Fold these 3 entries.
Entry 1:
Amino acid sequence: MDNFRPADHAMGLELQLEELTEQRHRARVQGREVDVRSLSVEINALQSELASTSERAAVEGYQLDPGPQLQYAEELSLDLPRWPAH
């Protein structure tokens, strides 16, 4: 798959981190220390991946995905009413 979008991937990682952080909190409240340690390892791995993905998005993201481009921008103003100058 050649159309990797770092910003989209980073958002997915952030959502996963949010979920795992919530699970870790529940495990901590419930006294499940083994789960807390396991989830912490997963969270650390995702944070590392998020850091490298964010770096990639910052460095090359614009070249890979410049975002939506407005075509025919001059046509947008053609239908606007002309307001009298005050």
Note: DSSP finds two helices and no strands in the chain.
Entry 2:
Amino acid sequence: MNKKEIIEKIIATTGCSEEKAEMIFDKAIENKDIVARLDWEWVMNRLVIGAVIFAALWALWKHIG
């Protein structure tokens, strides 16, 4: 979940304002109740897409040149 989704869930659960939900989120980050992690699936998807685009451009360049 990203920050926005977590804040929306806090608002839905507690019924507080967005500012208060931001404060709760920041406090949870400080207390390590919420741990930020890198989304490796997203990173790998972008790397694969980049590799496919690079291979296609390289093949096109070799075909034309």
Note: The helical segments are 3-14, 18-30, 40-64.
Entry 3:
Amino acid sequence: MEPRRHRYSRAQRQYRGSAEHWLRQSSVGALALCLGGCLAGHTAEVQRSKLPPLPDPITRHQNRVVIQLSPEVVPDSQCVAYEQYQTLCFDGVRTAIEDSLEDLLWPSFPDVKIRRHGDELEPGDYLLQVELKLDALPPDRSRYGWSAAAKGRWRVVRDGLPLEGESLSTRSRGDFAYGSGLGQAAGEVVDAVAAHIAQVVVRLPEPAPYEPVPLPPVVLKNSFTPEPAPAPTVEPAAPLPVPPQAERQAKTHNAIP
């Protein structure tokens, strides 16, 4: 039988262990017990890997893409708990998927922006909305260790019209022990989700494809090879001087009629 699971956010876990809550429910002794047990647990920082560029074809879009992950829907820290196990919190969830999507989408769009509270959209913007929840799954018949799982949905909207969207789920390798090592497993599923979403988004049709302005030609010159030395200048040889006796004979010969 799989261990029973409790799921709540880090904020909820901290509230469950807050002094105000427990003073309302019990005595100071109960408060000390909670602070020793409720706040203890494991932290698994989501570890991203270096994703390769997306293969062609990639559509060159005219407008930017804005990525939106609401902190209320995708908290940066997501916690799960099983009976007889300490609470496990995945940290850096929202930041990891935002960074992965930003790295993958930039070849297709002139700008990739992470939307924060108060940011306004511009006409023609592609709005990419993502919801994602992480989980830790115990060993089963197909996996001898713990694994990370992700489940969520996404969609792309442009000027109020939905263009594409899906629900999705994935699960990492089951090679991990329960605890901080699951941060690597969480990175696997986050990168898998980001790569799948990006592969669809970069191939969305563009009504007016981007036409780059042709650049002027560049004249090439190899500046690393030394130029050959100039050929030496050869001066013409000066005429040999005529001996005085030969000069007199030539004059005498010319004077004879």
Note: Residues 182-201 form the longest helix (20 residues).
